[in-house]
Amino acid sequence: TPHSCLSISPSSLSVDIQGLQRQIEELSSFSDSPAPTVTRILYSEKDVLARRYIKSLMAQAGLSVREDSIGNIFGRWIGTEAALPAVATGSHIDAIPYSGKYDGIIGVLGAIEAINVLKRTDLQPKRSLEVIMFTSEEPTRFGISCLGSRLLAGSEELAHALKQVVDGQNITFLEAAQSAGYAIHQEDLTSIFLRKDDYFSFVELHIEQGPILENEGVPIGIVTAIAAPASITVDFEGNGGHAGAVLMPSRNDAGLAAAELALAVEKHAMDSGSLDTVGTVGVLELHPGAINSIPSKAHIEIDTRDIDEERRNIVVNEIHQSAIRIAEKRGVKLSKFKIVNQDPPALSSNQIISTMEDAAKQLNLSYNLMISRAYHDSLFMARITPMGMIFIPCYKGYSHKPEEYTSPENIVNGVKMLALTMANLSSE
Ligand code: GLV
Ligand code: MN
Ligand code: MN
Ligand code: MN
């Protein structure tokens, strides 16, 4: 095989799991909601503190640390052939409201530990090894998923959108970034783009966020493809009015239009012909939000995904048709139907898949080849470099809720897999 020339032996890999678990606990304390929940929103005070902590860990690991103007953080171990494209890894540390300690975190703290593991061997990497902490993988604040990696991968559309986008408090992206200490200006946004030859490969370590590995007792997942996500925001507007005085036939209730659309999302996802289609309404806001006032405005946010992009696009279109029909039927205005993103799926690189398979075999770990139904920064890194992902099992497949958990054993396996995969890629 092309990977037979091994740079290090698997038995020389030792993970400081106690230290890593302490770091996971410490990072989880930078949260805007009480333990055990974690809430860490882009450019909040807690996010700024967490970022400082990550940079300090990168520096302690002896990495040279660079931060771009929106706060993507890069820690590099410079290789003996420093001019060659680097082998990168990384993930995110932002956390959706009331979530857990592991989503994204394992791919950042675990990656820094993977570097420490390799530094404890006598490896001198040929290609540089780099850990990336991506800004805002989660769409919570500005509605844009994988914001940092999407921009790094050269999205002109995003660079443009970021000039105007605001959060729920009407704070612009640029103001929010500036308040977190990033002196970003509109003109700079495209300067963040990476070039296709900056990296030799990108590998992300992540919890599975689904139940398959745990159910089957398999310690490692090797991701072959990432499903195609889309998100949509919709606003309905009606006349509102007094909940006692306006009789039922004279109402045009924006809230009921939103409720009906939420049910239509469920139906379109379920009627697609495949269990791989999912649709979720995770945000539904009513205005003015008073028990005795008919909702005059409703805002909903829709997430729909599939491993098949065409089928996903059919569902997006059906949701649009339903929104138009419901607005007509209920006499409300469909004041916004905005497809925020409609991303294609990504395929892992065959070469990286086989490097990961070799690593699993060297470590005597069984593995499944599998699809990622969640999205990740890897979806966008795949646009500029060959990509691969390593999954570890998580308790009952729980994620995006506080019960999220993965065991120390799983973490050790994942960190070793990542270390060995990166070492092998760096020697190519
Ligand atoms: C990312 O967190 C996702 O929703 O897949
Ligand atoms: Mn997530
Ligand atoms: Mn994640
Ligand atoms: Mn994700």
From TrEMBL:
InterPro entries named among the record's database cross-references: Amidase_Cbmase, Bact_exopeptidase_dim_dom, Peptidase_M20
Pfam family, one: Peptidase_M20
Listed GO MF terms: hydrolase activity, acting on carbon-nitrogen (but not peptide) bonds, in linear amidines; metal ion binding
Stored SUPFAM superfamilies: Bacterial exopeptidase dimerisation domain, Zn-dependent exopeptidases
Keywords: Hydrolase, Manganese, Metal-binding, Purine metabolism, Signal
Gene Ontology BP, a term: purine nucleobase metabolic process
CDD domains: M20_bAS
Entry keyword annotation includes Metal-binding: yes
Names of the cofactor(s): Mn(2+)
Subunit record text: Homodimer.
Chain's role: Involved in the catabolism of purine nucleotides. The sequential activity of AAH, UGLYAH and UAH allows a complete purine breakdown without the intermediate generation of urea.
Protein name: Ureidoglycolate hydrolase
Organism, scientific name: Platanthera zijinensis
